[in-house]
Design a protein that fits this description.
The strands form seven sheets. Strands 7-8-9-10 form a four-stranded antiparallel β-sheet, with no helix packed on it. Strands 11-12-13-14 form a four-stranded antiparallel β-sheet, with no helix packed on it. The protein is mainly beta.
């Protein structure tokens, strides 16, 4: 069971993030796990299914959180019964790295409700080109597919797919969204690869369009990592590991205006932790930012004037080994804040186990990694 789930949605007005699906076909026992957060209490069930996922994984549930509307690994769209949605098996077939297990880029797919509609949903995903000397993959196109969730007896149907949204030099994943201050629309933000810019899109009832390009006072340190908005939508952060981890870690932190989609108070923080990784998540009260390498977890306090100086070590890899599949180290992977207010952390290997931070709103080691 390969656990990799990447939060794509912030400021849900209801409970659309209350169901998670993780896992892939292993041939050994149930291959899919359903994390159900109804009543903000985690319940886990397992089952066999055809759902296959690597690093790219997006899921959206009905507004009451009780059933899944759609899932995607950026190469296939699935319905709530964990089987391929009608026309969902045709997306992104021309990408250079097509795999039945989906995209190997974290945060490479995103599902949002179309503002103003109760049945239409948009799936946004990257098209990947062959490597060139400056990078291991070229992410140059943003595509969309449209789902009508009411068709096919409520299992949904893909109406169109591989519709070109835009072309650009996109970062390796980090496709993220935040609810507009009007409570209806969505801001979609993607770092531009090897450039001091963020690409900002607006999704409203008429569809998605590029809204503006945000110029930054420093380069985005393109690499492996995550991007996240804070739960209250006022902050945006990017974690990056550089040059095969030899350059250490970069945390880039911004204030975000949900009315205008603009950024301010920009900080770029570099520190020498060469263990690689690059995962991050905010606490539920938006006061603490967690940053992880494969062997360490730090807290930062983004509301302080000296954010870099606030870095506090709160957890370290304790030597856990996967004794079921591979006997490989279960290093720290990507982070996600869950509806039960805990932060769940993937492993860097195939395993049935996950790390967690039990009390993310607590300062220092009282957060209980």
């Amino acid at each position: 069971m390969f656990f990799l789930y990447n939060n794509s949605l912030n400021l849900f007005s209801q409970f659309e993030d209350y169901q998670w699906i993780l896992g892939y076909y292993s041939g050994q026992g149930p291959n899919t796990m359903n994390f159900n957060f109804e009543n903000e209490q985690l319940q886990i069930t397992t089952r066999h299914s055809s759902y296959k996922v690597s690093d790219g994984n997006a899921i959206i549930s009905a507004p009451d959180g009780k059933k899944i509307i759609a899932m995607s690994n950026a190469y296939t769209i699935y319905h709530r019964e964990l089987d391929t949605m009608v026309n969902g098996g045709r997306i992104n077939r021309n990408t250079a790295f097509y795999s039945k297990y989906g995209s190997s880029l974290a945060q490479s797919v995103l599902i949002l409700n179309l503002p103003g509609s109760s049945s239409y949903y948009k799936v946004f995903y990257f098209w990947e080109d062959r490597p060139k000397p400056d990078s291991f993959v070229q992410v140059n196109k943003l595509y969309e597919a449209t789902i009508d969730a009411q068709l096919n007896q409520g299992l949904g149907q893909v109406l169109d797919y591989d519709v070109l949204v835009d072309t650009d030099r996109y970062d390796f994943g980090k496709l993220q969204a935040c609810r507009h201050a009007n409570g209806r629309d969505w801001w979609v933000v993607i770092p531009r690869r090897y450039a001091p810019q963020l690409l900002v899109y607006l999704l409203d009832p008429s569809g998605i369009r590029r809204h503006h390009v945000e110029a930054l006072p420093f380069d985005i340190k393109t690499g492996i990592g995550q991007a996240q908005f804070s739960p209250d939508g006022t902050q945006y952060a990017i974690a990056q590991s550089q040059d095969n981890f030899r350059q250490g870690q970069y945390l880039q932190l911004f204030d975000f205006d949900r009315c205008s989609g603009t950024f301010s108070n920009m900080n770029s923080i570099h520190f020498q932790d060469t263990f690689g990784g690059g995962g991050l998540a905010f606490s539920s009260n938006s006061q603490i930012l967690y940053f992880a390498s494969t062997k360490t977890i730090y807290q930062f306090y983004p509301k302080q004037s000296d954010v870099a100086g606030s870095r506090t070590l709160v957890g370290e890899y304790q030597g856990m080994i996967d004794s079921f599949f591979s006997w490989a180290p279960c290093h720290i992977g990507y982070l996600i804040l869950a509806p039960d207010h805990k932060i769940y952390i993937t492993n860097t290997t195939t395993t049935y186990w996950m790390h967690s931070i039990e009390y993310p709103d607590s300062i220092g080691r009282s957060c209980k990694y």
